[in-house]
Specification:
The complex is a heterodimer of chains A (158) and B (506).
Chain A (H helix, E strand, L loop, with lengths): L9 H11 L6 H12 L7 H8 L3 H10 L11 E6 L2 H5 L2 H12 L12 E6 L11 E3 L2 E3 L4 H10 L3
Parallel strand pairs in A: 1-2
Antiparallel strand pairs in A: 1-3, 3-4
Helix pairs in contact in A: 1-2, 3-4
Chain B lengths: L1 E5 L2 H5 L2 H15 L4 E5 L11 E5 L2 E5 L7 H6 L5 E4 L4 H4 L17 H6 L4 H6 L4 H11 L11 H10 L6 E6 L8 H8 L1 H15 L3 E6 L4 H16 L15 E6 L9 H8 L23 E5 H13 L1 H5 L2 E2 L2 E2 L1 E8 L5 E6 L4 H8 L9 E6 L6 E3 L9 H5 L9 E6 L4 H15 L5 H4 L1 H13 L5 H15 L3 H5 L1 H10 L1 H11 L1
Parallel strand pairs in B: 1-2, 6-7, 6-9, 7-8, 12-16
Antiparallel strand pairs in B: 1-3, 3-4, 4-5, 10-11, 12-13, 14-15, 14-16
Helix pairs in contact in B: 7-8, 7-10, 9-10, 9-11, 10-13, 17-19, 17-22, 19-20, 20-22, 22-23
The chains are: A alpha+beta (158), B alpha/beta (506).
Chain lengths: 158, 506
């Protein structure tokens, strides 16, 4: 199976950078756009970004590694974010998360062997009055109990 | 038949879209003509999905609705009937100034917005000087709703007086505190109010550009805000000539990247500039050296979204609500293990007890209330003995509490207070920007120290208190500086959770 990096299109990287370069403080918009396009931040993008913004690759690495959203390698086909924050905890969020990880045989940030699901922690989805809450892709789900979580996971193919 | 169904993400999260599909299918079966408008949420989350049907000019509610309720709702004999929504206790008892239109209008209809008082404030502001605009905000007594409660008018005055070739309005929409969702609901339910407030701010201080820094955990809000900005621009509410005033103001929506600390204003500015979200020392104040070193107003969503009604109804109208130095209304977010959770806008001064036990109806589980955490993860756990405290900035502070963004998270008696204290430290460690040793390292040591207490080592208790003092005094921002609040409030008010660990370990 070809490595993900083998299919990275440098022309696309350059196009994304140049279409954002005139923004004030363009780096986060550039990183978001690259991750949207490729599913992760390819290392081939580092030199072109640093060049275009006139920053060092160390500075760029510093920015990428600071933010929880950015990742340097692909995740599973579905990213399931389970809220770990206080309001979700107040209605059993911790136990729900533990059961889910145990069922999938994962630690936090882990991906199932078949590449279907990655489970990440998230700290608040703003659904604190219909907790516990999770987000899968861009879809938010509230009042999650064990049964609903089973459905979410099986629909994600895990 | 006119029907409204919220598109707010909380409503969608509990099945609103599926109910819409069922309503459309049922209407087709019955050969009924229905017209469904998606709105924001009324804020009564325990009733979502809340379907509203217009009957004789009044909107009647049905909720919490499931797809199976669709046919009966259309027939008018559903057992989920609640009667006229605005006659419900929760709605009647509010003073909705900031949230007046949320749940009522189509969030993306400028016509709907204008029909409900929208743009009246901006039209008035467009005929005022920057100083007159700033004076009006000062007179209203509006204080920053992000958490610090700084007088908004004074902040605007500083930026107004600054001499610079470019100034900015930055809206802090990085609402990361657990137990808070007012910003999200406002942006999803009435985005034009925020846009109008930012435009008035721009005219007030001489800023021609605005940014909304929105957290990435709010994809629906980002989508609605982007669409609203486009619509506003096409209608001349934003752009080179705001409402024909001859003055320019435009807005760009920017997405955060999962860092809680970027809710701190200087960390946010660094992030907006494309840097690590490290906190800056103040002075210089962002009002003088903010985004790209230029004078910048950084205000919370609710602060900016309250500006239009201040200009529409007048500063005194707003200032007449409230108590002490907490003028106007507070948008309470009632959350967690609570029977009736949601958004409740009311004058400052309501007591915790009324919010939790009367409005909130006690716990969702039915078990006794143990504590409520107010102000987010950096706020104190208030025990039941302090529930007579009033919700105002100074009033709550005098009781050892933090109002913050006014989110209240209710816990029942199954809550493990040692676990909550440990989580406060763990969260600080995960989210620390890394600048200050007491925060970066202290939070990690805090987790370890609480683990020692959990194993029965009571010598670790005074060590924890000492560590908290150091974090409080030695941290540049509220992340490290206020983490001691939930930790020490748990130790102080729930000592059994920390001493029983010793017995359990033996």
């Amino acid at each position: 199976m070809p490595s993900p990096e083998a299919t990275i299109d440098n022309v696309e990287i350059d196009r994304i950078i140049s279409s954002h370069i005139d923004l004030e403080g363009p780096l986060l918009p550039i990183l978001h756009a690259l991750q949207d396009a490729f599913g992760f931040l390819p290392s081939q993008a580092h030199a072109p970004i640093a060049d275009a913004l006139n920053i060092s690759r160390a500075e760029l690495h510093g920015v990428i590694s600071f933010y929880h959203d950015f990742h340097n390698a692909p995740k599973g086909r579905h990213v399931l974010k389970i809220c770990r924050a206080e309001a979700c905890q107040s209605v059993g969020g911790t136990a729900l998360a533990e059961k889910t990880l145990a069922k999938l045989g994962l630690d936090w940030h882990g991906t199932t062997a078949d590449g279907a699901v990655t489970v990440e922690p998230v700290y608040c989805l703003g659904l604190c009055a219909c907790a516990p809450a999770v987000m899968i892709g861009d879809k938010v789900i509230g009042r999650v109990d064990a049964a609903r979580m089973d459905t979410i996971i099986s629909e994600a193919g895990a | 038949m006119k029907i409204t169904v919220p598109m707010d993400s909380a409503a969608k999260a509990v099945g609103a879209d599926e109910v819409v599909q069922a309503l459309l299918a049922a209407a087709k079966d019955k050969g009924l003509e229905i017209d469904i408008t998606r709105t924001g949420t009324r804020g009564m989350i325990w009733l979502e999905p809340l379907i509203e049907v217009e009957i004789d000019g009044q909107r009647h509610g049905f909720g919490p609705a499931t797809p199976e309720d669709a046919a009966a709702i259309l027939d008018g004999n559903s057992d989920k009937a609640l009667g006229p929504v605005e006659a419900l206790d929760w709605m009647k008892r509010q003073t909705r100034l900031t949230f007046a239109r949320v749940g009522i209008i189509d969030p993306l209809s400028l016509d709907d917005y204008k029909a409900h008082g929208g743009l009246a404030g901006l039209k008035r502001a467009a005929s005022m000087t920057g100083q007159e605009i700033t004076d009006e905000v000062k007179a209203s007594g509006l204080r920053g709703r992000g958490g610090a409660g700084f007088p908004t008018g004074i902040k605007w005055q500083t930026v107004h007086d600054a001499d610079a070739p470019q100034k900015y309005i930055v809206c802090n929409a990085d609402e990361g505190d657990s137990g808070t969702f007012a910003d999200r609901m406002l942006m999803e339910g009435d985005p034009f109010t925020l846009i109008e407030g930012m435009a008035i701010a721009g005219l007030g201080v001489g800023a021609t550009k605005g940014y909304v820094y929105l957290r990435s955990e709010y994809p629906d809000a980002i989508d609605v805000m982007r669409k609203a900005v486009d619509i506003a621009r096409k209608a001349g509410v934003l752009g080179a000539d705001v409402l024909g005033s001859g003055r320019a103001f435009d807005i760009e929506i920017r997405m955060g990247a999962g860092a809680y600390v970027c809710g701190e204003e200087t960390s946010l500015l660094n992030s907006l500039e494309g840097k690590r979200g490290v906190v800056r020392a103040k002075p210089p104040l962002p009002a003088l050296e903010g985004f790209l070193g230029r004078p910048t107003v950084v205000n919370n969503v609710i602060s900016l979204a309250t500006v239009p009604v201040i200009f529409e109804k007048g500063a005194q109208h707003y200032a007449d609500f409230g108590l002490g130095r907490s003028r106007g209304t507070v948008t309470l977010q009632i959350a967690g293990n609570v029977a009736h959770g949601g958004l409740f806008e009311t004058a400052f001064g309501i007591a915790i007890d009324e919010v939790v036990n009367d409005l909130g109806g006690g716990t969702l589980s039915g078990r006794p209330v143990k504590a409520v955490q107010i102000g987010g993860p950096l706020g104190s756990y208030m025990p039941v003995s302090k529930f007579d405290a009033k919700l105002g900035y100074e009033e709550l502070d005098s009781q050892g509490g933090l109002l913050g963004h006014a989110g209240l998270v209710v816990f029942d008696d199954t809550a493990d207070m040692l676990g909550m204290a440990r989580f406060a430290m763990e969260f600080c460690a995960v989210e620390s920007c890394g600048k200050c040793t007491p925060c970066r390292i202290g939070a990690v040591r805090g987790v370890e120290t609480i683990d020692r207490i959990a194993q029965g080592d009571m010598d670790a208790l005074p060590l924890l208190a000492d560590l908290c003092e150091t974090m409080k005094d030695g941290s540049l921002c509220a992340l490290g500086g206020f983490t001691p609040l939930p930790v020490m409030s748990a130790v102080t008010h729930f000592p059994d959770a920390f001493s029983h660990a010793k017995e359990a370990a033996e």
